[in-house]
Amino acid sequence: MSNVLYWQALNEAMDAELAADETVFTVGEDVGLYGGTYRVTEGLLAKYGEWRVRDTPISENSFTGLGVGAALLGLRPVVEIMTINFALLAMDAIVNMAAKIPFMSGGQFPMPLTIRMPGGVARQLGAQHSQRLEAMLMGIPGLRMVVPATPQDAYWQLRQAIRSDDPIIVLEHELLYFRTGELDETAVAPPLHQARVSRPGRDLTCITYSRMVSLALETAEALAAEGIEMEVVDLRSLAPIDWKTCEQSVSRTHRCLIVEEDNECGGVGAEITATLQARSFFQLDAPIRRVAGLDLPTPFNGALEAQSIPQKKDVVQAAKELVTNATGGVS
Amino acid sequence: MKKPILMPALSDTMQTGRLTRWNKSVGDPVRTGESVAEVETDKAILDVEAFADGYLAGPLAPTDQDIPIRQTIAYIADRPEAASDATAQAQKAAPAADRAESARPQAASRPAGDARRRGPVTPIPPPEPAAEGRGHAAPMPHSPPSAAPGVGVSPYARALARDLGVDIAEAQAGPDGQVHARHVLAVALQPQGADLRLGPPYEITRPGTLRAAVARNMSATLQTPTFRISSRLPLGPLHQKTKTKKVSLTLALSRACALTVAEDPWFNHAWTPKGLAIRKRVDLGIAVDTGAGLITPVLRDAANRPLEELAEDWRILLEKVKSGRLAPEHYQGASFYLSNLGIFPEVVEFDAIVPAGASAILGVSAPGTDGNTTLTLSCDHRVIFGADAARFLQRLRKRLEDLSWLA
Lengths: 331, 407
Hints:
The complex is a heterodimer.
Chain A: E1 2-5, H1 6-20, E2 24-28, H2 44-48, E3 53-55, H3 60-72, E4 76-80, H4 91-98, H5 101-104, E5 114-119, H6 134-138, E6 144-146, H7 151-163, E7 168-173, E8 180-183, E9 196-199, E10 204-208, H8 212-224, E11 230-234, E12 237-239, H9 243-253, E13 256-263, H10 268-279, E14 289-293, H11 302-307, H12 312-324
Parallel strand pairs in A: 2-3, 2-4, 4-5, 5-7, 6-7, 10-11, 10-13, 13-14
Antiparallel strand pairs in A: 1-8, 6-12, 9-11
Chain B: E1 2-6, E2 16-22, E3 29-30, E4 35-40, E5 45-49, E6 54-57, E7 66-68, E8 72-77, H1 80-87, H2 106-118, E9 152-153, H3 155-164, E10 178-179, H4 181-189, H5 209-220, E11 226-234, H6 236-245, H7 249-263, E12 270-272, E13 275-277, E14 284-286, E15 288-289, E16 294-295, E17 298-299, H8 307-323, H9 328-331, E18 336-340, E19 360-367, E20 372-380, H10 386-401
């Protein structure tokens, strides 16, 4: 058991898989000499050489397509896309190829491809570098996507993703790389797509993922001081979603709040709301409520940028209103 | 910037409070500690104090409606403009549906209620984008709950009602006008009343909080195994002496009881689920008729403190009863009770109910033609036995004959 940074956990996972299986390799911009924009591949070039830790030109669709081809031939590529914003250039490789080929070939071609990339609002990187596109990717059949919120999950889920025979996106977060957390390499990992109750609570369920998990946990502490016990469910995976854990939590609390950094319209929260109201209709004592990013390109101005994504006070207010039924649920 | 004022929780058992009136209007300046409203709890009317300096801002919660604790009842704004801004949205506050049950045919009674519930539908202006505290709310106007026809029921509440066999119409909606699970549970947990539907037409009105509290407390004593023992004792000499000494007969009787209790501590004990509560001090509760219901102000340490001090306490307590400002610390926790109906000459004999937390209560009737008065001691048999009670009356008789203690 040790206390590590999120990027260090990913680095350890990469190292472990590269060491364990010689069909594993990684490609991407600056993954080699530079050691990765967020240090995830630090030290790996020296250890495994340039055939397995490969720098590429700025050409997302090409090197992601390279990953697809390598996977078709039985290798286990880990493609790093510097940020999710650049994945837009690789959509043909991701959506038209990786997600479709196993189905279109009737399973004859496996697709053990892992695509790693960070998303999210960091600090004043501008609208084009602050996107959260998980809702878009979540809606593509044939793709899996995990969203680790802690170093431990980052370690487990990256290793599990690399060993999976399906195409899978490991969505990281730019503000999580330098967060610390405990890592136990010997602990047994839960199933890759299983959600977790990060904090039990009696009065309402907060369903969230990625960086918003720590925000939800902080909020839960503040609410507990006022006598409101909020249960926090960390989804850990957006495709598929572990509905069982969500349902079980809502059947205990009868109230559900979804917190997402991505913008509200057509978002992850919309999908959860629609599905949960059907699965848990008779358990709901109030309308499901969302706290989400605003529906606008992220402002560059720091103060405005902070206002455009959920803050602790927003979650506190929504939770209180949900518990006291102070509003009819229109957010 | 405005901060919410919440319905305070004024006791461990308080679930809801009822505002009796607002002492300030929207826009009025308020100072920390100043009373902005009065709230009626189980038995008392207490002040809701401002927690900060500022200006009272709406929407103000309605008076004479049950409001759950910790719910927002108003706001304190730091600027007068902010206080008046908020009033523009006052219509947002949904008046809780005033639901009175009626046994008359629905056609006769419902329209009036419905008309009131719907009220005039005021269009809500869309919130200004720059307004504070709006978080990430989409710029969509709230639809006023008052415009909704009828009362909404949450899916969980409906499912619970079905499973528990509760008639949803009996559930009282919350402040948002919706029936939630807790309202269905409240109906399920309340004791079943008599079926009045075949009798004369009736209307159900909600009892005042004092009457409701008395009803609750009296029902709670049903489990007490009680016996009664009576004696006819001369109260004449005591009455005479109180006249010359200018003390009230009730006070003198209370003192006599307190001294008698002090001689046998068993009368000062109480049976609790955890064991016997042994108390060193005699706190004497005296039943007082307020017109609106029964209340029992308590004279603390009634056996040891000087009579003049008790008389002053008694005067203050009666004033508080009159003004409706008796707080729980004034009327709870007596170890022995006295109920005097002696001013009604028709009452020759009665027995009183032992309140929870005490082991005995003495009922005093009107004097008979022979100059004797029937005193009935009701006792909790878990604590007091028959012979103890007989000896208590014996000692009380001596005290009523030899009045040296009142000198």
